[in-house]
Amino acid sequence: MKVLTIKEPYASLIVNNYKKYEFRTWKTNYRGPIYIHASKVPDKNISKFKKYNLNYKNGYIIAKVNITDCILVDEKMDKYLKELDNVVYSNNYIDCYAWKIENVEILKTPIPIIGKLGLWNYEEK
Fold first, then answer.
1. Looking at the predicted structure, is the pLDDT value of residue 74 above 80?
2. 2-117: CATH number
3. With CB atoms counted within 10 Å of each terminal CB, which end of the chain scores lower, N or C?
């Protein structure tokens, strides 16, 4: 199964359906299921997201989702993202790729594992 490592609080924002897109500087042609791995290292802006009351599980695969699209963000898309939630989407994402995330399934038993850069593979036991 493919896995994407994401820093907290962004991984938990996805898992709790607040964040519908993940942003990368690179495009993916992959569509389908992936695991979300919460990085051991949190983002420096984590305190900005206190209002969401998230429980973080750093260093674990925490959910399975589907990547359904990969969109190059232009000014129109950037404006749309800010209208979704101006706290989650407060950055300027123009010229980045928005990976559309759907069908979030939280894992009942998170999987402890060290993450990797890029889209990587996890062999289920």
1. yes
2. 2.30.130.30
3. C
